[in-house]
Each structure stands twice: as structure tokens, then as C-alpha cells.
Amino acid sequence: MSTPAPPPSPKPPPAPAREGEAPAEDLDLEEDIAPNLGGEDQMQDA
Q1: Is 41 within the bounds of a domain?
Q2: Stretch 10-37: mean pLDDT, rounded?
Q3: H or E stretch including 26?
Q4: What is the DSSP letter of 7?
Q5: How far is the C-alpha of 33 from the C-alpha of 13, rounded, in Å?
């Protein structure tokens, strides 16, 4: 193990699952709670 593992490459931006909805990352949780209320804002409030 003399060679250090390469740094994780930046993942590409999540493709929009549906128009007007949160990115795929938020869809996992926010779609069930409030897909159109702004998932990002909800996360900041919590």
C-alpha cells in the first residue's frame, strides 16, 4: 500500500429527474416530504 488512493473525483451535477423538482440528491428524501416547496430550504430549516 505504498500508493495513496487518488482523491474522489467530483461527481457530475445530478440530472433533473423531473422539471421543477429538486435534484436527484434531494429527491431521495424531499420528494416524499415536499418536492415543490423547495427541498433545499427545508433542509436549512431543519
Answers
A1: yes
A2: 56
A3: helix 24-33
A4: P
A5: 22
